[in-house]
Amino acid sequence: MQAVVCLLVVVVLLLLLGISYALVRIRHLHRVLHGLVQDSVPPSEYGQIVEAAEETPPGIQRNESVEGGLESESVLGNSLNKELFDRIHQTIVEEKLFLNPDFSREHVIRLGLINKNKVALLFREYAHTNFSGYVNKLRLEYALHLLQEHPDTPVKAVAYDAGFNSVRTFYRIFEQVYGKTPLEYKVEISGKGMASKEQREPNHVQS
User: Fold this and answer.
1) Do 152 and 117 touch, CB atoms closer than 8 A?
2) Structural domain boundaries in the chain
């Protein structure tokens, strides 16, 4: 009889140990999954998920002090994002990184130590366009400067000097933005006498 009681005690202890171990593993798994979600979800989307989770159900009053704290954190986050964008923009402009035809989002990621999703978010929010639109805008502004300061420079050379890797692309984007081709703009600011050096604008611009 005593042996049976001892056996039962041992079985109960083993069950308790098993349950305790399982609870520890479950808590550990929860922490791991929580970390994976934070790493895999873009910062902007993760913030939206958190906000949705914290949304007050109908009939429940919000704690105003907590609400104010969340608003302050949101303002702080926006301020940090703006400072980050300004720093990236200043570096790109001052070092003329946009003149590199191969300049890409990967370069920006290395500059700002941010992920690809963050790059897209920053440029949509503060440049009001995507990354390609932002870079092309800088290149067009630089091309306008070259056309104004060096009217004798051929349009093809201006396109490459401004960072475009295709003259056709330069013509297309220039006309979309300014409503005229680069050659038409050059003639306009230089006078028709300067146009003779490039003759007529071809119907099909070669890249």
Assistant:
1) no
2) 133-195
Phi-psi region of 42 (alpha: psi -120 to 50; beta: other; left: phi over 0): beta
Nearest-5° Cα angle at 72, 71 to 73: 90
pLDDT of residue 13: 64
Which tens digits make up the pLDDT trace of 62-80? 444 434 444 444 555 688 8
**Separation CA 180–CA 33 (nearest Å):** 55
Q: Which residues, in sequence order, are CB contacts of 10 under 8 Å at separation 6+?
A: none
- The CA distance from 191 to 185, in Å, is 10
Round to whole Å and give the CA distance between 41 and 115. Answer: 11
Q: How far is CA 122 from the centre of its chain?
A: 5
What CATH superfamily is the domain 133-195? Homeodomain-like (1.10.10.60)
* pTM confidence score: 0.57
